[in-house]
Amino acid sequence: GITVARVRKGRRAEIRVTVKPWQGRRVVDVRLWSHAEGSGEEMKPSRKGITFDAAKLDDLLDALHQAKQYV
Questions:
Q1: Integer Cα distance of 36 and 53 in angstroms
Q2: What is the pTM of this model?
Q3: In what order do the strands lie in the sheet containing 25-35?
Q4: Tell me: the pLDDT tens digits for 19-36?
């Protein structure tokens, strides 16, 4: 997969946006990565995140733009 963005979330965590193939289709993965205890500098993905079909990306972007007007 290709990591297209990293957004810092504190000193020990970040949100990564990745596009990758999965079961014959393209998906977008938005996931929290953090330094696991005892792993040193290596970051590992957590279970906190969402993976969805890339074909739904425009729908999700529209929803996020709508949500932005309330922030």
A1: 28
A2: 0.86
A3: 2-8, 13-22, 25-35, 43-53
A4: 999 999 999 999 999 987
